[in-house]
Amino acid sequence: MSGRNLIYQIGITLVKGIGNIIAKQIINNLDDISLVFTEKKHLLERIPGLSRRIIDEIHNPEVLKRAEQEILFIEKNKITPLFITDSSYPKRLQECIDSPVMLYFRGNVDLNVPKIISIVGTRNASAYGRDMTDQLLHDIKAKFPDMLIVSGLAYGIDIIAHRAALRENLATIGVLAHGLDRIYPAVHRNTAVEMLNNGGLLTDFMSETNPDRQNFVKRNRIIAGIADCTVVVESAEKGGALITANIADSYNRDLFAYPGKVGDRYSEGCNSLIKFRKAALVTSAQDVFREMNWDVQTQTAIRQTVQRNLFIDLNPEEKTITDLLSKAENMQLNVLAIELNWPVSKLSSVLFELEMKGVVRCKPGGVYTLI
After folding, report:
1. 11 by DSSP, 3-state: which?
2. What pLDDT is stored for residue 111 in this prediction?
3. Which of 98, 202, 216, 350 has the most C-beta neighbours closer than 10 Å?
4. Closest CA to 11 of 29, 35, 30, 28
């Protein structure tokens, strides 16, 4: 947990008028989040985004009282709170402008493993959708047994993906539209419990939060932002899967869709994503691996070629980056900056030079890889 500051970290999410974007502005302006609740009003007025009305809400005694109540729930149920500045907070999600400042996680998996895929689709899955999902998970297991599978624990493709992942012994995370004091839909409780032993449950909603309609849209941004890419198996023209896909696209994350029969109601969404070039067409897991540059043999050959032919012409800073990239299949800009302890401005400049030399390429989402 986050120690003595946890009450204030939860508290900031409870203040009326403070959303995730304003909360991040506050965090960036203060060394200690507790100062929001302890500083004098005239000092708080200097922080961008804090109006007098919001400052009055900060001093509402019910805010920290409710935060204390949530801490008791967290401790009793062995839940891990993840504040946006914590090292264990999902780094891919951290990059998203509207990422939640506080997450609640119950499970046993690292949310920053090297490869994460979100799989979504219609609640009215057909036999075709089930078969494609099962085969996708089987093929993932064969090539990348350490990959983390993310979905929304909903009816249809979501629960099919979770169950297929569990059968294949792949870790899987269910992102919830409510607090961790309940499971919705209730018929998926047994699967959710099984996931706690190989994956877990994740939400940005506190206990006592119902699975209200608007919460599912908010939940979808986590599914889209926590992964390297999103795969849509089946989807109608409208629905949660298409919302998740569009959010992933807005985050510049790679998006894939399985094609379906023309005119089939639950293939219209996927076919539309492909038609308007928002998603790459896939018919197998190998298509995803290739597009994501996750082909191990090809990647190894590329690295060896780069090491033999290019490293001799690199300056020390460029060599530091290529050495780091040679140990990982790809790395996001902010992750690189953290690993190297460099300012993003400096890192971006060096990466640009490497791109000009044809040593690295930038993929959607600010992900860099050797070429």
Report:
1. helix
2. 97
3. 202
4. 35
